[in-house]
Amino acid sequence: xxxxxTPREILETLLPPLRLAAxxxxxxxxxxAAQPAKDGPNPFSAALTDADLSIQTFVEVALLGSFPDLRxxxxxxxxxxxxxxxxxxxxxxxxxxxxxxxxxDGTRFYMDGFPNYQIILTVLNADSFxxxxxxxxxxxxxxxxxxxxxxxxxxxxxxxxxxxxxxLSPTDTVFLGTRMAALASKLSDRYSIIRVxxxxxxxxxxxxxxxxxxxxxxxxxxxxxxxxxxxxxAFLAQEAGGWVxxxxxxxxxxxxxxxxxxxxGVAIATTPDLHRDLVQALQGFQxxxx
Length: 290
Known about the structure:
Largest sheet: 7 strands, mixed
Order of helices and strands: HHHEEHEEEEEEEHEEHEEEH
CATH superfamily of the largest domain: Fructose-1,6-Bisphosphatase, subunit A, domain 1
């Protein structure tokens, strides 16, 4: 196996091109023209824009130019000209890192002109996340975490060392991801509920999953946590001191035991009491099939 850079070296190397990608995404947001929708189970997974494709290509070029032996999986790998140049797109053995990219997390939000979209880069080991970098271009800030070292937040122009520790701010608002809306009846007597598929509006903004890092959400329940986005944000929340488990309240499995680049159902909470309530509400709950 080739000598691998450290997760921190990967973040430090890719942060400058990711800054440019963030400025680009912000510059063209009001002018964006949607590409034909991707196949997907819901409008949020099916949205695709010029920004997704352009940012992924830009990061691929930077990665191949800096660390050509790394594994890389980008959300738009099927449409990328560069996929064939990477050594692999799947998880490797221990210390054979896989870098992933969601070029625009929250593409539907982005297309509708809302600011709560992100560019998310992860470094994955066989068992778990090693690092996550999540940039919020419209808010001129980013979050990052290295495994076991906490989550930090900084302005986009700041280097990693200048970022400050992130403190989660508990609220009584719970975000239910796609296919989880029916859970609202078990929680609405104690919490304000946002059901993303049912409550999304092009006229009135609602928080996205990243709201758990911003003090907008106290809890999040996802039918599955994709490594490139939902699971990455769960890792940031956990490193910041949050509670993150599967729907049964158990630790999430090793990444190499998962299928389709995703954790099974994920529960995220900023307090142990809220996490307990989420897990209790999930007892016996059956996630609707697609």
